[in-house]
């Protein structure tokens, strides 16, 4: 079953119509939405077009929604829908992470506008709020494209407004909305070529449908007949939805969606990022996943006997390893203390901020980076504050805002240095009061470095911004990583653990080892670059990186190669070509 | 008659100076114990060869007041003779100081030392324009007033291959902000109002040439321009090609950067002096 007949649901529902809900019920609905999103967080994360370590949509939306609910709860007695939604919208803005999190926060902000001044929510006022939500969300994105969360929000809102024109029963309106949201999610695969190639639906759109489903379940208690992931439904918590293209779907699309189900509270502790492989005939990925579920956050189990790769954030890595070793030989073990890293970064930034607190600056730069080496490079080029974050950890609006405050300047230039952080950076101005926030939309760290190279505190800010923007465009970025799962991308078959080279975000080369992939990529360039900077990742040894650079130098004697310690996680190498 | 004196940092060849009728006082460059008069005992080619092999950076020093005095005395032959002495920015060198001391000793009423607030090709453009004024019959006051007007419209943009030499030579000024980076960068600098100003940092020569072109564009309409390079003739030619696309009606000469400024720029640097037209953004 891929979705219920929308007319059939209300017709079979014997309950009396629901004509309005109040602030308490709204808060309850938001809590329900959060719980449902929690249950479907990993499911949403797995809907990733690129099989690379990347900003996790499910986690980003979950953390954004969590901030919304926390703020609504902290606002005191839920006296009116207006008060609850206002608090939730503000909370979501503070906690917004990733592009989908930011768009979600804009939807909530639009709803808050629409509900403004209302004590109770009725059908007409819900319809008006949805109109506002669509408009505000659309405005947040500069070049909206079809087949994303925006399309899903718009289609869903249109269906609900049409339903509201015919009926005052919020149960009917919500049922229609949930149905349309899931139908719109299913359509995204055909709306966006990248989604079609990867045989997935849009993750943000799916997340939104999950949120609406969770809300409807809590407010009107409906079982709305969404597609259920029956095979892996865990009775201990809310049922998980099945996204179209899920391996359990009988329609039999290729199965790109694999991975973890365990979700613990990801916010309080960062734990240790623990990675290893389990080798042996018993190293079954499903069994391992079950055994390890509940032992950490962000559990990722990929591959399968005789070679399964495990990634988990846990406070007790020894425990996890002990469990895993029952299934085979544990190797390639890597444990990083994320809390310590995080603390170190915070302390570092804090120390710099304190050192300067005496004088307020005219202009300062706040940059986002992941990896100690990149932190040092950006600081040496004059960035005043550096916020930890990147592919796998997107900072929230509030994280950026804190750095903006610590920078203590009249104007702050933000360098997001990641595709999935640009939109978050663009929201900071809402919270920034009288600080003039300028975003130079750098998509990669090399772009951010190029931009920062022509930063000058004493030049007029508008001229500097123009120069920084154009400098960012003059560098090409190559990111080398490993596929976290098998996939099909741009017509190429990718196996789990294949080495991928992304050039400016597009898949450029696939292979089995880093050096060959980089050499093939260099060979594919129409003109060799003048300068290539090789930033080695946290997991790449200096010897390996040195060998790579020496080899490249032999093949390209006219190119100047420079090796730097980037310290980035998950990406063995990041290269800038200039 | 009005005589023009400048110093060796104007980077005129002996032949050019002779044909302009300009008198050049050399600064001094020292490699260890070996001492050379800039442009007299040491030409750019030889200097960059020595620089490449030198165990330590050369040092430079201003001409002595006595060297200036000798030139001034020789020029003030008849009561009609006057001297305008145009020199490297006083913020970069003590040369003007020596000229002022010599002028006071020789005949302050007939010797006019002027700060060009520039150097190398920028100083060249100003000296040549003053020569034209003199040839056209302008009096000393007019020549000096025109110099002051033109120097305010003249700036030089430089792309250095490295910050190393500027840093070692201690002439880094505000470009100090560029020091200490982890990455290897090529600084883009300007010399304006006599001072070195950091403009931007780039990673590649191509980006550097782009930055120079942007700076030229921002200067607006130009009255004159001239290119200089430090042991990088091909880079000079490349810059001229790029400049031609932006300023098609001015044909830029290319000049070898001399030993004194070369000590601080290091090899493989390229620069362009721009004299903005009156009323252009860079001409105010």
Greatest interface by residues involved: A-B, 23 and 20 residues
Helical residues, percent of chain A = 40-55%
Oligomer: heterodimer
Q: Poorly predicted ranges of chain B (pLDDT <50, ≥5 residues)?
A: none
Widest sheet: strand ordering of chain B: 10-9-8-13-11-12
Output the CATH homologous superfamily of the largest domain in chain A. DhaL domain
- Radius of gyration based on Cα positions of chain A: 24 Å
Measured distance between first and last alpha carbons of chain A: 52 Å
Using DSSP, what is the number of strands of chain B? 13
**Individual helix count of chain B:** 10
The first-level CATH class name of the largest domain in chain A:
Mainly Alpha
> Taking all residues together, what is the mean pLDDT of chain B?
92
Largest beta-sheet characterization of chain A: 6 strands, mixed
Under CATH at level 1, the class of the largest domain in chain B stands as Alpha Beta
Total number of β-strand segments of chain A?
A: 18
Mean pLDDT of chain A: 82
Order of helices and strands of chain B: EHEEEHEHEHEHHEHEEHEHEHE
What fraction of the residues of chain A are assigned to beta strands by DSSP?
A: 15-25%
């Amino acid at each position: 079953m891929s979705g219920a007949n929308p007319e059939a649901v209300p017709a079979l529902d014997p309950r009396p119509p629901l004509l309005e809900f109040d602030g308490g019920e709204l808060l309850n609905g938001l809590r329900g939405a959060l719980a449902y999103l929690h249950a479907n967080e990993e499911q949403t994360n797995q809907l990733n077009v690129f099989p690379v370590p990347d900003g996790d949509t499910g986690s980003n939306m979950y953390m954004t929604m969590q901030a919304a609910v926390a703020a609504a709860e902290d606002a005191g007695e839920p006296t009116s829908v207006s008060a609850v939604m206002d608090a939730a919208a503000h909370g979501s803005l503070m906690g917004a992470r990733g592009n989908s999190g930011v768009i979600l926060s804009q939807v909530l902000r639009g709803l808050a506008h629409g509900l403004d001044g209302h004590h109770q929510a009725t059908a007409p006022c819900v319809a008006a709020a949805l109109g506002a939500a669509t408009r505000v969300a659309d405005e947040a994105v500069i070049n909206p494209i079809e087949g994303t969360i925006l399309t899903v929000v718009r289609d869903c809102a249109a269906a609900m407004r049409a339903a509201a024109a015919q009926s005052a029963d919020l149960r009917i309106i919500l049922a229609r909305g949930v149905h349309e949201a899931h139908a719109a999610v299913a359509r995204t695969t055909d709306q966006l070529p990248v989604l079609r190639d990867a045989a997935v639906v849009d993750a943000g759109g799916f997340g939104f449908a999950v949120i609406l489903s969770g809300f409807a379940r809590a407010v009107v208690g409906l079982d709305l007949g969404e597609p259920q992931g029956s095979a892996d439904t865990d009775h201990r918590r809310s049922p998980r939805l099945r996204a179209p293209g899920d391996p359990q779907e009988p329609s039999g699309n290729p199965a790109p969606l694999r991975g973890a189900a365990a979700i613990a509270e990801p916010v309080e502790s960062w734990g240790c990022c623990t990675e290893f492989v389990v080798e042996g005939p018993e190293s079954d990925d499903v069994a391992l996943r079950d055994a390890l579920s509940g032992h950490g956050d962000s559990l990722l189990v990929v591959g399968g006997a005789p070679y399964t790769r495990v990634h988990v954030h846990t406070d007790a890595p020894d425990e996890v390893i002990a469990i895993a070793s029952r299934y085979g030989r544990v190797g390639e073990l890597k444990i990083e203390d994320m809390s310590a890293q995080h603390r170190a970064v915070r302390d570092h930034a804090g120390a710099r901020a304190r050192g300067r607190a005496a004088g307020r600056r005219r202009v300062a730069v706040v940059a986002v980076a992941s990896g100690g080496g990149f932190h040092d490079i950006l600081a040496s080029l004059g960035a005043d504050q550096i916020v930890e974050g990147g592919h796998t950890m997107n900072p929230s609006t509030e994280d950026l805002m804190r750095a903006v405050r610590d920078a203590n300047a009249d104007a702050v230039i933000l360098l997001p240095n990641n595709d999935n952080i640009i939109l978050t950076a663009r929201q900071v101005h809402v919270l920034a009061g009288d600080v003039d926030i300028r975003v130079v939309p750098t998509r990669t760290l090399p772009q951010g470095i190029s931009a920062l190279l022509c930063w000058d505190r004493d030049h007029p800010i508008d001229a500097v911004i123009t120069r920084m923007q154009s400098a960012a465009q003059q560098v090409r970025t190559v990111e080398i990583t490993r596929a976290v799962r098998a996939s099909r991308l741009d017509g190429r078959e990718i196996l789990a653990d294949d080495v991928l080279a992304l050039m400016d975000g597009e898949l450029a080369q696939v292979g089995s080892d880093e050096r060959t992939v980089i050499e093939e990529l260099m060979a594919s360039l129409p003109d060799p670059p003048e300068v290539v900077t090789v930033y080695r990742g946290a997991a790449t040894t200096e010897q390996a990186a040195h060998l790579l650079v020496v080899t490249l130098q032999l093949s390209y004697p006219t190119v100047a190669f420079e090796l730097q310690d980037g310290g980035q996680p998950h990406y063995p190498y990041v290269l800038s070509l200039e | 008659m009005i005589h023009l004196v400048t110093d060796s940092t104007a980077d005129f060849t002996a032949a050019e100076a002779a044909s302009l009728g300009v008198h050049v006082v050399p600064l001094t460059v020292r490699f260890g114990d070996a001492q050379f008069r800039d442009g007299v005992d040491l030409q750019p080619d030889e200097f960059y060869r020595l620089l490449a092999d030198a165990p330590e950076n050369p040092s430079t020093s201003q001409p002595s007041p006595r060297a200036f005095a000798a030139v001034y005395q020789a020029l003030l032959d008849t009561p009609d003779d006057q001297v305008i002495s145009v020199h490297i920015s006083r913020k970069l060198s003590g040369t003007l100081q020596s000229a002022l001391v010599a002028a006071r000793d020789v005949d302050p009423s007939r010797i006019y030392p002027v700060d060009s607030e520039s150097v190398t090709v920028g100083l060249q453009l100003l000296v040549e324009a003053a020569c034209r004024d003199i040839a056209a019959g302008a009096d000393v006051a007019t020549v000096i007033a025109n110099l002051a007007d033109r120097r305010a419209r003249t700036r030089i943009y430089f792309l250095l291959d490295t910050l190393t030499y500027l840093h070692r030579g201690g002439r880094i000024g505000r470009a100090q902000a560029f020091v200490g980076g982890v990455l290897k960068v090529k600084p883009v600098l300007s010399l304006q109002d006599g001072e070195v100003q950091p403009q931007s940092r780039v990673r590649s020569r191509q980006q550097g040439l782009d930055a120079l072109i942007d700076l030229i564009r921002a200067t607006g309409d130009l009255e004159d321009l001239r290119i200089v390079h430090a042991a990088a003739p091909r880079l000079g030619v490349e810059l001229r090609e790029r400049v031609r696309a932006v300023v098609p009606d001015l044909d830029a000469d290319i000049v070898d950067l001399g030993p004194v400024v070369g000590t601080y720029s290091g090899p493989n640097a390229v620069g362009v002096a721009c004299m903005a037209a009156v009323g252009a953004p860079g001409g105010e």
